[in-house]
Amino acid sequence: MLCAGASVAATKAVDDLGRLISLAQPAKRIITLSPHATELVIAAGASDRLVGITTASDDLPRQLAALPRIGGPGAIDRERVLRLRPDLAVAWHSGNRAQDLDWLDRSGIALFRSEPKDLMDIAAAIRALGRLAGTAVVAESAAGAFVLGLRTPCAQLAPRPAYVVVWERPPMVIGGRHWINDALRAAGFLNLFTAHDAGAFAIAPEAMLAAGNAQRISLLPGLTGRDAEIADLLSRPGPRLPRAVQLLCERRMAP
Question: For residues 234 and 219, is the Cβ–Cβ distance under 8 A?
């Protein structure tokens, strides 16, 4: 009886929306609907369970590059999804189309919705996916390494004002309701626009000028060098964020 109880417990987890995901057995066929969802599953030690990924996934290990693609930032290929017979889908709640996520729910496919509010939510998602895939030991190790990688000496410094640009025309910046703020704090920065209760919002050019000497962090395309690396790492709420925090800390420590 104890073994049976442990098995049931290992296949239950709560997603970022507080929804209980319950599987009869650990997931054996997983699809992901966003690049960061793919990275979360890999970090959880379940890459061998992946049977379909988004077309936007890149920088994948060689053995995963040939996986079937089930759609991009727009609509998913529902027929292909059904042919793949997944027992778990991992999606980005605000990044995927609501109608596709509702369709997955109606189709009876267990759906884990990722929508982290802070960096600890990302660690929790790695652990949750490990429980659902039966790889909890690997996932716990990865989540611990993720949390450890966020520790920097910059977190003890007086925070330097900063802002994060995500769009150019019209200018858009990150507001107070975004996990990037957590990454900034870990690196010794403080977002000037945390008072705005939004993930991202349009801002008047004059407000950008008023930011003065605050650190400008850009997520715009066309960057080069270290700026491009930081933008790429910060653009996904996944297990690569400790590297972004470390790079931002280096910038904070620079004269």
Answer: yes
Cα–Cα distance list, 188 to 65, 195, 208 (Å)? 36, 18, 21
CA angle 180, 182, 186 (to 5 degrees): 115
* pLDDT over threshold 80, residue 129: yes
Topology annotation, domain 2-149: Rossmann fold (3.40.50)
Neighbouring-strand partners of residue 65: none
Two tokens, residue 171: 């200018």
123 neighbors 143 (Cβ within 8 angstroms): yes
pLDDT value of residue 164: 96
Structure tokens at 143: 């989540």
Contact 29, 88 (CB under 8 A): yes
DSSP-assigned letter for residue 53: B
214 contacts: CB under 8 Å, gap ≥ 6: 160, 161, 162, 163, 192
Domain 153-253: homologous superfamily in CATH = Nitrogenase molybdenum iron protein domain (3.40.50.1980)
> What type of residue is 47?
S
Please list the residue range(s) of the chain that carry CATH number 3.40.50.1980. 2-149, 153-253
pLDDT of 2: 37
- Length of the chain in residues, anyone? 255
